[in-house]
């Protein structure tokens, strides 16, 4: 895979659409026996690992540019969401849990579960963004070390994926198989496995001829969902279920055209484009439904509506603005560098 391959791929938007679709079903219309919300988050994780490995290791994006682009996508929408929720709590006279708010804003709330006697803030879902942010930092450190020839990126990412899997197994054994039902399963040292195993597979399979059977990707997806069934032991669910999703997303590039067309279905792609903002805003309405204060259909409609508004009013405009500012600065820097490196011509009169 070379740099010319790094174009926008519509079927990856469809993958995002599937991820948010399953998450919404899991939250608002749960299916007995399987946590579709958890499966949806894992679909996001493996896609994130695939994309971050592309830009950091194959495309070798500059680290400052990597952070600026990730920040432009995530921070404005998240901070506006937190601010609006806090303001709404204050206006309605509800108590604000400032500890939970600070932990969410600092992207560490996956290590700070809600206290039993404290006001419940609708920030619990930010745990997954914490895992992603922590993974970005660790992947970028590996990328810097690999570029300095201090280690092999494929080996380092693979070792980290194995360590995260081992941490999950360790929690499962220590807490008698209950770690997925406790706060520990959302810790980055466990949940980052999906991101890192996907990144490892991309690096390990890069530039290799891959099978093109139309059954492989759907089969892996079916296996991944089957392994998310409630009775499947947690380590098997995590290592092999998430691993199946990771292998599926890595095989998408060489999948048959029919798979690409299915994932490029316009409504699914559009849902994928809205997915981050919808994910942010579904949580407060999900909690209303969970407490039986709102019907699932109304909760879903309001969650989708709030998320779409957030996309067009906050996420997309802020990302476009910040990326344009970044591009302008890079252009000025490139011109200055070109001027400094230009040959000096001596003119003799």
Task: Write out key terms for the chains shown.
globular, 349 residues, single chain, disordered C terminus, disordered N terminus, mainly alpha
Specify the helix fraction band. Answer: over 70%
User: What is the number of helices?
Assistant: 13
Structural class: mainly alpha
Strand content: under 5%
Biggest β-sheet, characterized?
none
Q: What is the N-to-C succession of helices and strands?
A: HHHHHHHHHHHHH
| Span between termini | 54 Å
Q: How many E strands?
A: 0
What is the mean pLDDT? 89
Low-confidence region ranges? 1-6, 342-349
What is the subunit arrangement here? single chain
As a whole number of angstroms, the C-alpha radius of gyration is 22 Å
Principal-axes geometry comes out as globular
Task: Write up this protein.
Helix content is 70%, strand content 0%. With 349 residues, it is mostly helical. It has one domain. It is globular, with a radius of gyration of 22 Å.
């Amino acid at each position: 895979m070379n740099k010319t391959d790094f174009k926008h791929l519509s079927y990856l938007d469809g993958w995002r659409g599937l991820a948010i679709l399953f998450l919404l079903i899991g939250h608002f219309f749960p299916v007995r026996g399987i946590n579709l919300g958890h499966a949806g988050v894992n679909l996001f994780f493996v896609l994130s690992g695939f994309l971050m490995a592309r830009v950091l290791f194959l495309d070798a994006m500059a680290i400052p540019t990597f952070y600026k682009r990730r920040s432009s996508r995530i921070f404005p929408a998240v901070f506006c969401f937190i601010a609006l929720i806090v303001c709404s709590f204050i206006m309605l006279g509800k108590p604000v849990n400032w500890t939970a708010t600070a932990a969410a804003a600092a992207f560490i709330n996956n290590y700070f579960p809600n206290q039993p006697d404290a006001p419940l803030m609708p920030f619990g879902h930010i745990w997954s963004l914490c895992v992603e942010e922590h993974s970005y930092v660790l992947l970028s450190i590996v990328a810097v070390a690999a570029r300095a020839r201090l280690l092999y990126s494929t080996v380092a990412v693979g070792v980290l994926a194995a360590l995260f899997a081992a941490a999950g197994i360790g929690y499962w054994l220590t807490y008698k198989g209950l770690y997925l039902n406790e706060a520990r399963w959302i810790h980055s040292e466990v949940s980052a496995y999906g991101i890192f195993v996907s990144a490892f597979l991309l690096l390990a399979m890069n530039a290799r001829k891959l099978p093109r059977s139309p059954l492989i990707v759907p089969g892996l997806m079916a296996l991944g969902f089957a392994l998310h069934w409630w009775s499947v032991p947690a380590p098997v669910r995590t290592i092999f279920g998430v691993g199946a999703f990771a292998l599926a997303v890595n095989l998408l590039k060489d999948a048959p055209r029919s798979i690409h067309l299915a994932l490029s279905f316009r409504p699914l792609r559009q849902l994928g484009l809205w997915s981050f903002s919808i994910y942010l805003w579904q949580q407060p309405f999900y909690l209303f439904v969970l407490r039986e204060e709102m019907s699932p259909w109304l909760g879903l409609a309001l969650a989708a509506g709030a998320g779409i508004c957030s996309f067009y009013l906050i996420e997309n405009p802020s990302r476009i603005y910040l990326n344009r500012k970044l591009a302008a600065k890079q252009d000025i820097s490139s011109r200055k560098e070109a001027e400094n490196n230009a040959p000096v011509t001596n003119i003799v009169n």
